[in-house]
UniProtKB/TrEMBL annotation:
Coiled coil: none
EC number(s) given by UniProt: 1.1.1.-
Name of this chain's protein: SDR family NAD(P)-dependent oxidoreductase
SMART domains tied to this protein: PKS_KR
Keyword vocabulary terms for this entry: Oxidoreductase
The keyword Nucleus is annotated on this UniProt entry: no
InterPro entries per record: KR_dom (IPR057326), NAD(P)-bd_dom_sf (IPR036291), Peroxisomal_Beta-Oxidation (IPR051687), SDR_fam (IPR002347)
Length: 311
């Protein structure tokens, strides 16, 4: 299955934050696969450019210019899909911002704006989409729909200087698991997409700055980066197309990663080791037992730097 195959013919999707970078690649790919797309961004010119690109390729798209986070924006996105295309089949919550600083330098505003856009924006858009899916089920007796919530490796492992971003991306993956349970009866699938791509949002990471510049010049991603799972935004988009297609109807509650030459399934948090003591534990008993029974199971928390190439 390639992103150009018409596997989404007639479906209607909203992609938040789709004026540039990963969002632009998502919107273009699902349009190429046959979907009608609501392109959302805060930059009217960027959104208009993406709509024009989709239409020039024979697709259909409309822009909605609004910041993601407020409930009113989520409602407007769903309303635009229904007004222009008659229904809603998929919501892709991609919009995001960065305010990178180590915690001692991070302000309340730095933290709050990231939470508002990523976490609250994902919540409000997912809630609005689910409400529309249920309404459509009542209207035409056909339940179903797709939610794809965009996470990041920064939410799965440590990412220095991104306390705010790591927190919301971890929260988004947790949200996907819970929504998958809540939406199962309506036959709505909910998955988290964990992309790794060389975009402008990654250019601030020194080791990737030149690679991002090279990609923007139209040069290929170096083979050693592709092999480690770092590629372009266009490398990520086919997984999204697949998740929105009928072929992925049985996949839900998952965190799926893609980048460069790799696709991955991230594990859910699970108990790595445990031990018991009749009557409970004292601090002294823990100190005695921990080195021999638990310490060897402690988990790595920080990745090799290339795995941080998703912003």
């Amino acid at each position: 299955m390639s992103e150009g195959e018409a596997v989404l013919t007639g479906k209607v999707a909203v992609v938040t934050g789709s004026g540039r970078g990963l969002g632009r690649a998502y919107a273009r790919a699902i349009a190429a696969a046959g979907a009608f797309v609501v392109v959302n961004d805060v930059d009217a010119d960027a959104a208009a450019d993406v709509v024009a690109e989709i239409e020039a390729a024979g697709g259909r798209a409309v822009p909605v210019i609004a910041p993601v986070g407020p409930t009113a924006t989520a409602g407007a996105l769903v309303a635009a899909a229904v007004e222009h295309f008659g229904r809603l089949d998929a919501m892709v919550t991609n919009a995001g911002v960065l305010r990178d600083r180590s915690i001692g330098k991070m302000t309340d505003d730095d933290f709050d704006v990231v939470v508002e856009t990523h976490l609250r924006g994902t919540f409000t858009c997912a809630r609005a989409a689910l409400a529309r899916f249920k309404e459509q089920a009542n209207e035409d007796q056909q339940s179903g729909g797709r939610l794809v919530l965009v996470g990041s490796p920064a939410g799965q492992r440590a990412s220095f200087g991104q306390t705010n971003y790591s927190s919301v991306k971890a929260g988004i993956v947790g949200m996907a698991r819970t929504l998958a349970v809540e939406a199962a009866r309506a036959q709505v699938t909910v998955n988290a997409l964990i992309p790794v791509a060389l975009t402008r949002m990654v250019a601030t990471v020194p080791v990737f700055a030149e690679a991002v510049a090279a990609v923007e010049r139209g040069e290929p991603v170096p083979a050693e980066l592709r092999e480690r799972g770092v590629g372009t935004a266009e490398d990520v988009a086919p997984l999204l197309v697949y998740l929105l297609s009928d072929a992925a109807a049985g996949i839900t509650g998952q965190a799926l990663g893609v980048g460069g030459d790799k696709i991955s399934v991230w594990s859910h948090p699970t108990v790595a080791a445990e031990t018991s003591r009749t009557g409970g534990w004292s601090a002294q008993a823990i100190a005695e037992a921990f080195p021999g029974e638990l310490a060897q199971h402690l988990q790595p928390y920080a990745p090799d730097l290339p795995a941080e190439a998703s912003r």
